[in-house]
Amino acid sequence: MMVCVGAGPGDLGLLTQRGTELVRAADVVAGFDAVVNLVRPLIRPDARVVTMGYRDQVQKLDEVAGAHRGGARCVVVFMGDIHFSGFQFLERVERACGQPVETVPGISSAQVLASRGRVCFDETTFVTFHRRGDLQPFKRHLVRALEDDRNAIVIPRPWDFMPKDVCAYLLARGVSGDLPVEVWENLTSREAQWSGTLAGCARDFSDMSIMLIRTLRPVPSQIEPAG
Ligand SMILES: C[S@@+](CC[C@H](N)C(=O)[O-])C[C@H]1O[C@@H](n2cnc3c(N)ncnc32)[C@H](O)[C@@H]1O
Fold it and tell me: What 3-state DSSP class applies to 64?
């Protein structure tokens, strides 16, 4: 068994029941240090724990794939949800295994932000810059989304495209500096929130931050019924 599990946004209470059962039953639990530490209370004392960082992930995933081929029940835990800014890691897991693996969704930081900010995903575009490679297509996509009067939930990239860089880029592309911006850090654990405008977002934030850029157009749910 090799299953990739979304571990949720940080509060263990927001890990799904299915994810909890899989971690509890696993012979091997693997993932980035911070995510493994989140689920550690659920890991059996006799289970093998494989933690990794950006530099050694390929080698560590090879170890996990080896255990999987040997018959071990392996779970790789992902931050938040696998399907929000997690596919590059999923591709590395599948490359190590040489086959597609099962995925179990989790609650994403993007969903928690939508809840805190009371925005609806139907009217919101999700863009992540937390990826390797060329950011240009994603930058263009963000500009177009805002030009189309959609809200945007944005994951910045530590440390070269952080919230202030995202805002500076958008201003340079002619997006209104009056757009309301919120930056939330450590959602569901040690939460902190900053609110301001695109033009006023000049401070530094931690790598555990996510942004909401709001459209100025009133969304249907905010429009008062006539009469
Ligand atoms: C590679 S992305 C993975 C996102 C994850 N798959 C998700 O669904 O939330 C990692 C980035 O997501 C953002 N992030 C994840 N969890 C967060 C949280 N609890 N609070 C704020 N930002 C978070 C941070 O910007 C972090 O550097």
Answer: helix
174-199 tens-digit pLDDT: 999 999 999 999 999 999 999 999 99
CA of 114 to the centre of ligand 1 (A): 13
Domains of the chain in start order, with CATH, are 2-104 (3.40.1010.10), 109-221 (3.30.950.10)
Encode burial over 138-160: b for 16+ CB neighbours within 10 A, e otherwise: bbeebeebbeeebbbbbbbbeee
Give the nearest ligand 1 atom to 155 CA.
Answer: 25
Atom number of ligand 1 nearest to Cα 109: 9
| pTM value > 0.90 | yes
